[in-house]
């Protein structure tokens, strides 16, 4: 069986930064990545590089940042009034909010965002809402572990059920 639309694919991979070879994440046989192929759940170039492969095939490819999580966009930097970060006593919470911390926030429309604190002054906190991998060229290596037909329910829902998938 070959990887194509509506197949459930299990694979292990190692993801590293293509510029400096730093490892970003790794999956293995006991905790593989399992996904429904061809429904837009993954980065398109990730799927393009896997299409047609069989169990046991290995892969080694790169995806440029603009085709992965995007380039680092200065418009996603924001200055937030520091009183937003005050504790119940009206003091800035220096324990929770430190430079480098990733903070879950929501915007005026209620969308959930994660921002990284870049700088803290008395008036403002400068935050970066870019994806953590924005600006990073990705390098994937790995091996296809399993390919099966998706069930009608999985195709209907657009995701994998069972072990490593959605439970509902
Ligand atoms: Zn489902």
Q: Would you mind describing this structure in some detail?
A:
- This protein folds into 2 domains: 7-69 and 134-157, Chitinase A, domain 3, CATH 3.10.50; 74-128, Beta Barrel (Thrombin, subunit H).
- The chain starts with 6 loop residues before the first strand and ends in an 11-residue tail after the last helix.
- The strands form 2 sheets. Strands 1, 2, 3, 4 and 9 form a 5-stranded antiparallel β-sheet that branches.
- The protein is 7% helix and 36% strand.
- It is mostly beta strands and 168 residues long.
- The longest helix is centred in the last third of the chain and has 6 residues, at 152-157.
- Bound molecules: zinc ion (ZN).
- Residues 157, 159, 161, 166, 168 line the site of zinc ion.
